[in-house]
Amino acid sequence: MRTAEIKRRYLAHFEANGHTVVPSAPLPAIDDPNLLFINAGMVQFVPFFLGQRTPPYPRAVSVQKCIRTPDIDEVGKTSRHGTFFQMNGNFSFGDYFKAGAIPLAWELSTKPVEQGGFGLDPEKIWATVYLDDDEAIEIWKQQPGMSPDRIVRRGKKDNFWSMGIPGPAGPCSELYYDRGPAYGPDGGPEVDEDRFLEYWNLVFMQHEITDVKSKEDFTIVGDLPKQNIDTGMGLERIASILQGKDNLYEIDEVWPVLARAAELTGTTYGKSGHAASESHPDDVRLRVIADHVRTSLMLIGDGVTPSNEGRGYVLRRIMRRAIRSMRLLGWQGQSFQELLPVARDCMSPSYPELAEEFGRISTYAYAEEDAFLSTLRAGTTILDTAITETKRAKQPQLSGDKAFQLHDTYGFPIDLTLEIAQEQGLEVDQDGFRRLMADQRARAKADAAARKTGHTDLSAYRSVLDQGGPVEFTGYAEVSRESRVRALLGGDGEALPVAGEGDYVELVLDHTPFYAEGGGQQADTGIINVGGGRLEVVDVQTPVPGLIVHKARVLRGEVRTGEAGFAEIDVTRRKAISRSHTATHLIHQTMRAFLGESATQAGSLNAPGRLRFDFNTPGAVSPDVLFDVEQQVNEVLLRDLEVHAFITSQEEARRLGAMALFGEKYGDEVRVVEVGDYARELCGGTHVARSGQLGLVKILTESSIGSGVRRVEALVGIDAFGFLAKEHLLVSRLAELFRVPGEQVADRVEQTVTALRDAEKELEKLRAQMVLGGAGALAQQARDLGGVAFVGTEAPEGAAGNDVRTLAQEIRGKIDQSRPAVVAVAARANGKASLIVAVNAAGKSRGLSASDLVKGALSGRGGGNADLAQGGGVPADQVPSLLAAVEKAVVEAA
Ligand code: ATP
Ligand code: MG
Hints:
Layout: H1 3-16, E1 20-21, H2 46-49, E2 59-67, E3 84-93, H3 98-110, E4 125-130, H4 134-141, E5 151-154, H5 156-159, E6 160-162, E7 167-178, E8 196-214, E9 217-234, H6 235-242, H7 255-265, H8 281-301, H9 310-328, H10 336-347, H11 352-356, H12 358-392, E10 397-398, H13 400-410, H14 414-423, E11 427-428, H15 430-453, H16 459-468, E12 472-473, E13 480-489, E14 498-499, E15 504-509, E16 511-512, E17 526-530, E18 533-541, E19 549-556, E20 559-560, E21 564-569, H17 571-595, E22 601-607, E23 610-616, H18 623-638, E24 643-649, H19 650-655, E25 669-675, E26 679-682, E27 697-706, E28 709-716, H20 718-738, H21 745-773, H22 775-780, E29 783-785, E30 788-794, H23 801-814, E31 821-829, E32 832-839, H24 841-845, H25 850-857, E33 863-864, E34 868-875, H26 879-893
Parallel strand pairs: 1-2, 4-5, 10-11, 12-16, 30-31
Antiparallel strand pairs: 2-3, 3-9, 4-7, 6-7, 7-8, 8-9, 13-15, 13-21, 14-20, 15-19, 17-18, 17-21, 18-19, 22-23, 23-28, 24-25, 25-26, 27-28, 29-30, 31-32, 32-34, 33-34
Helix pairs in contact: 3-4, 7-8, 7-10, 8-9, 8-10, 8-12, 9-12, 10-12, 12-13, 13-15, 17-18, 25-26
Bound molecules: adenosine-5'-triphosphate (ATP) and magnesium ion.
């Protein structure tokens, strides 16, 4: 029975029994910050089980896509673990309980295939129950064909379920299928979990627990008011049973990938015994490849892209492991280009979107493999040498230094170093590696701060911060305010009591309306008046978190620490920057709407009137899409939406769907900026009050700035208007010059260019004709110099180099072949003379050589052979003497 059919039957069975069919949630677990990926069918129903939300239906059934990263090391070694798998599940929210769940599971498992069931032999099914769950045991005993000696009691570790937090919990009961003595010893699931394969787990949520110290250490407070059912049946596991396969890598949805990998690498699959413990390493590798390629397909399909953090890193590791396994089996070529389409064909019957979006999916996958292969090429030799040396020196560990160097210089990931070293029986000094990484990170931070502030040493800033606490930024609400000078710092970070006219200082206020550069937004500039002094602020930075430092020049008077003053930003500039920042949010949101959720921000610059926005997307954005994005953004401006910022908890922001970058570290409280109902993003920057204030957004360019990262640049407000107005003027001027309406200018330019090109070609042809037209007459005028026919002539004015050469050859060809002949053509161009000499076969037989004649006339300069030679470079007025020199040489030779 095909996997897609098993899935269909599962849903049909429960739908016929009053369950609502609910689609799978996407793999990334976006609602749960503690979970990277959905790992069970119940995850999307958690709020119902916890009583946080009222379920819209009392019973549900789903087939949920799952990823379990902790199972990655089991893949291929056991018969039953995939990183990606699908979990069939039926759920009851305070509706039926054990007496409903057990018969429903039994019926579907044992009902004959012809009647829509799975047709398992009841005698081969075992059930496990929690120690004291007599209620479940009684129900199991009543199932037709079940026998009490196949019902086993097990402890908390195996048969008690909880979420590891206070809340609902309860006993569970698992169904096992006995695959027979070839797979392992007798004795039931307690003895061998590969022969007795768990395919279905029924969870009975009936207790409330508290005091949770571990999975097995907690206190049961009492019973839940409403009892729930949560079940999970591994789709691949039941498929392996129903398809008579030893493991889930050989079922219809996975096998073709494995078979293709075996074919490419020339590996024979099937060297293992039936039992998982008898697995041959080659077979394990092929299973890993098949599993990982499929997992990569499903992950990218659900919007995950390779990166160095979070979900993207899991994907990257899985892809790399598949590629490395292929190489270890001897395949040197591209793996994903061969295997990914096979995985797509296996999975698209159940997930048609994979076929539809294969263009996007494969672009990411192939680009990632390319990048990884170049990393491998660079690092492998160096690592191999290091391993050999370490072994020769009889050291047990590869040094942290080496691992760091590989990482730092060659981008060789540490987990790969660990894996390769381990294969060679070596450990890696991971502590040493981590120490070097931490040092480097600290250095990089200090460097970056130094570039912004001029000081590598941050201690001066720290002490200012320690003395007065964080500086309050008041610029969200006001553009000027009274404040006190808390500190003045000189060029070396030394505290100054006073600064005078012309001095550059760093100035710290208690409160400030000045925005420090950050989050892509440029700093404010402006004026600070203190006592009798006046300062011009040219830059604002945050060298250490919490401290806002103004870099300023004293325009006049004196400024003292402790004095009161008045700070005022350049409002026009700030407004223009805020317009750009709001525009960036709108472009971000709109790009995602057109290109998909994965088009996330990778960097930005918000400057007065212009912005730059970098984002992740696999290929160039087409002009059509750019046009649509621009139009949609401008439509949002017309809607004049209110821009509103508020502080909230991280969870709430996520729940609201605010855009934030993966792996971004925010404190508990976050600031969310929303533009009406259109865009919502975590952001600390300044914005306009209404979208209408942007006036106009004009996208100028779109380009690549690295693999998978694109950049758009745009103008905002009056700058956008200025740009369009200039373009308009340009078109008007062209229209005037071409004497056509503006919209016809492009056509007219194209016509003109074509006409010009044609005319040039025609001109060239005519010129050649003109030059060559005289060849016949010149040949007839050949003079006889002692039996040698000689023509010496100057080419017509303006003849091109090629034409001169052709002219010499034409004249030579028109002289009777039996007569020895020498043709010399001289030409003038750009104030220089050139000379071409052609000699015919009869002339060569008389000992004449074109190259000798040219060199003779030009005192050694020139090149060619006996038939044809040329030279030049002397002043143009030497043309007659060059011809005379050739003539003289011919006379002498004849
Ligand atoms: P096991 O002990 O075999 O790892 P489990 O106890 O982790 O299984 P559950 O958490 O009860 O499994 O998940 C419910 C069902 O999902 C299991 O009965 C099994 O059929 C399936 N399942 C769990 N993990 C995997 C996996 N890595 N690959 C394929 N199917 C799985
Ligand atoms: Mg498990």
